[in-house]
Amino acid sequence: MLRNIILITKKQPPKLDKLMDGCIQRGVRLYTTFPEEVTLLAETLYITDTAEIYRGLREEFANVLVWLHEDNREQDFSMASYAVEEIEEADYTYFEKVYLRFRGLPWTVAETKRCIIREMTEEDVEDLYRIYQGKNITKYMEALYEDPEEERQFVRAYIKNAYEYYGYGTWVICRKENNRLIGRVGFNLREGFEEPELGFVIGEEYQRQGYARECCEAVISLGKEEYEFDQIQVLIKEENLPSLMLSEKLGFTFEEKVLWEKEEYLRYLKKL
């Protein structure tokens, strides 16, 4: 849990009203200090505009964000994983997400009336096997690896290569009522197509209860507002009637039949 945000900067930062408001709402302390007064604290995100301070903090395994401005462009920040330029325009959520990424903790990407949609973690693998044991789950999609350790390795790589690189991917769905993982939803890029593809799976015991539509609508809005997608696609087997019906309810329209890896699909598009 993020408890402190500490700015250690040589340049006087501007007014950080957006960040301050978020800190106050969440009970996070915001400090401004000088380079010679660096104190290492747990559950803290540091922000600095000095390469030397950045390197020193990272050597101590601190979580550090770089503030880039006109006075430090000549410094070498190539080693930095995260940076912000117009710091006064960034709200608290951005800083919290950077902290979570450093700690290897999942981002919550969306909420619906009944569900939280968040990034996957290795700890979710056991629940994913429970969901994929449903007799019809893998009828129209790939199964998980037979070896759970291989699946965990895949999830670790996916977090780095999808979430950290693209900023989006396939996320897990958890019920707010009991935090139970009930499925997955999100966007992926299918080789040979330009449009991001919406995909989802809901555990059999939670099907026909509106969860798929509820969560798909949430991530479609996210695709438009957060990722600025112009349009998205779905590829569905012709015999997969429930998915075809849901896609039409979500506003997708039939585009064409396509072949992908020797399998025929119906391709639907939705403009955002």
Topology (SSEs and partners):
Elements: E1 4-8, H1 17-26, E2 29-33, E3 44-48, H2 51-59, E4 63-67, E5 83-84, H3 92-103, E6 108-111, E7 115-118, H4 125-132, H5 148-166, E8 170-175, E9 181-188, E10 197-202, H6 211-225, E11 231-236, H7 241-249, E12 253-260, E13 263-271
Parallel strand pairs: 1-2, 1-3, 3-4, 4-5
Antiparallel strand pairs: 6-7, 7-8, 8-9, 9-10, 11-13, 12-13
Protein traits:
Rossmann fold; 272 residues; five-stranded antiparallel sheet; alpha/beta; elongated; Aminopeptidase
Roughly how many Å apart are the termini? 35 Å
Q: List the strand order in the largest sheet.
A: 2-1-3-4-5
Mean of all residue-level pLDDT scores: 94
Order of helices and strands: EHEEHEEHEEHHEEEHEHEE
Gist of the model:
This protein is an alpha/beta fold. It has helices at 17-26, 51-59, 92-103, 125-132, 148-166, 211-225, 241-249; strands at 4-8, 29-33, 44-48, 63-67, 83-84, 108-111, 115-118, 170-175, 181-188, 197-202, 231-236, 253-260, 263-271.
Structure description:
Strand 12 and strand 13 form a beta hairpin. The two termini are 35 Å apart. The chain has 272 residues and is an alpha/beta fold. The chain has two domains: 100 residues, HAD superfamily/HAD-like (Rossmann fold, 3-Layer(aba) Sandwich), CATH 3.40.50; 164 residues, 3-Layer(aba) Sandwich (Aminopeptidase). Helices cover 30% and strands 27% of the residues. Strands 2-1-3-4-5 form a five-stranded parallel beta sheet. It has a five-stranded antiparallel beta sheet with strand order 6-7-8-9-10, with helices on both faces. The protein has a three-stranded antiparallel beta sheet with strand order 11-13-12.
